[in-house]
Amino acid sequence: MKINSPFQTLPKECLAAASQGMVYALDNDIILKVPFQYEVTEEDLEQAHCWDLSLRSLVAMENESAVYQALQESPHPNFVRRLIATRVDCLFLERLETLQNAWPKAKHTQRYRWALDLLAALSWLEKIGFVHGDLAVRNLGVDRSSHCLKLFDFGSSISRSHPDYSNDMMRDHFGLATCLHFILSGIDPFATVRSHSEAIEIRCKLESGQWQVAKEAEVVADTIQDGWAGRNGSMRFNQLFDRVANTFHRLSQYTTPTTLVEGHYQKLQSRCQDWLRYAQANPLWKDPDEYVAACQHVGHQAVLDDWR
């Protein structure tokens, strides 16, 4: 079954191909994220689950775009920067160093700073009315210039008006605990998971307090254990920020990291525009309503709202 993207030709280096979209390196400083669409034909009706994956990818792009639009109006330095705001079928984003790669080179004081950076980002996201929905180590990166931690990948994000907001907030508290544990100790309990059953087993251990917090993370062991056990669900992230900052004895020293000068981002935006100037649109690409109509035409009852 053929897979289509908004462009006929994509960059050569694919960094990730997941259920919510595909990520490519435009160069060392820029990434391109695109949704995907499995081609819809009557012959492939038995593979209709692939069309549902496509719908999920389209909705994920909607979710990300909504968050980045809100961040454009209310910016914060602990989020990845969107470079072009006019596209609805793709995202151009600044490229970071992965947290996993940056971690071994950081001193413990820098790791404390990263923990507070993450809490600052989540506090801001909550303030502007969103929950991340998929908070994990893989969705954190480090700015190569400012060395601050930044949050990205908002394909699962929903707004405060969504009926699942409270449940996703609880999920983010659990994810925060896992991220804090990794930031401070370098240990992600889920790093070696190879199956769904194994992930469930580890999660049960974390929720029931059977997982030993690593020595390097013991400074905020209560916060981590409470997050895993679901006891932090009623707390706002800015309250957790204050709690952790006080534990680090760094509240008076923490300042919001400065952003890079706009000239830097303007240069990146120009490079994105240069790429778009030569990129050819894929004539087989459909907007979300067209894709739903194509699915329904061949007998698959696709409903976009089921994935929103």
TrEMBL record:
Protein name in the entry: Serine-threonine/tyrosine-protein kinase catalytic domain-containing protein
Domain Serine-threonine/tyrosine-protein kinase catalytic: start-end pairs: 98-166
Coiled-coil stretches noted in the UniProt entry, renumbered to this chain: none
Organism: Fusarium euwallaceae
Pfam families, A to Z: PK_Tyr_Ser-Thr (PF07714)
GO MF annotation: an example: protein kinase activity
